[in-house]
């Protein structure tokens, strides 16, 4: 998995209530948009848009099984910390890799993330 897409906007997306509900559902097993929509009572079109955003930020992976597309979470955990004028996000991926990203200055995502960790 490439890390170029990691930025503060990814954190904002992951902290959104509907996104968090979707990520929670697909963390244990891959699910189709129809399953996600029905289980979480989120309109199909909104699920599609949100999953597309999550896929762009590498929060989820889309798999195809015949004619059915399923989505699974790439995250095991995401922690956000604020210390003074710095924001940190610790990401643990489903495959066990961990990364820490530090945002300097404005927490609005204007600055580049500085990757630390392994």
Number of helices: 4
Q: What summary fits the major beta sheet?
A: 4 strands, antiparallel
Residue runs with pLDDT of under 50 for 5 or more positions: 1-5, 107-118
Main sheet strand line-up: 3-4-5-6
Distance between the termini: 14 Å
Number of strands: 6
Considering the chains and any ligands shown, give keywords for the structure.
118 residues; Arc Repressor Mutant, subunit A; 4 helices; 33% strand; elongated; disordered N terminus; disordered C terminus
Question: What's the structural blueprint in terms of helices and strands?
Answer:
Layout: H1 8-15, H2 17-26, H3 33-40, H4 44-56, E1 60-65, E2 68-73, E3 75-83, E4 86-93, E5 98-103, E6 113-116
Helix pairs in contact: 3-4
Can you characterise this structure?
This protein has 118 residues and is an alpha+beta fold. It folds into two domains: 8-73, Arc Repressor Mutant, subunit A (Orthogonal Bundle), CATH 1.10.10.10; 75-116. Helices cover 33% and strands 33% of the residues. It contains four helices and six strands, in the order ααααββββββ. The protein has helices at residues 8-15, 17-26, 33-40, 44-56; strands spanning 60-65, 68-73, 75-83, 86-93, 98-103, 113-116. The model is unreliable at 1-5 and 107-118 (pLDDT under 50).
């Amino acid at each position: 998995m490439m890390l170029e897409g990691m930025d503060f906007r990814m954190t904002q997306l992951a902290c959104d209530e509907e996104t968090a509900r979707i990520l929670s559902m697909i963390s244990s097993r891959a699910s189709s948009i129809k399953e996600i929509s029905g289980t979480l009572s989120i309109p199909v079109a909104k699920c599609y848009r949100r999953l597309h955003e999550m896929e762009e930020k590498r929060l989820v992976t889309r798999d195809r099984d015949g004619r059915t597309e399923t989505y699974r979470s790439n995250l095991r955990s995401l922690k956000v910390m604020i210390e003074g004028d710095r924001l940190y996000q610790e990401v643990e991926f489903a495959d066990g890799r961990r990364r820490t990203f530090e945002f300097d200055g404005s927490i609005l995502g204007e600055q580049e993330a500085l990757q630390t960790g392994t």
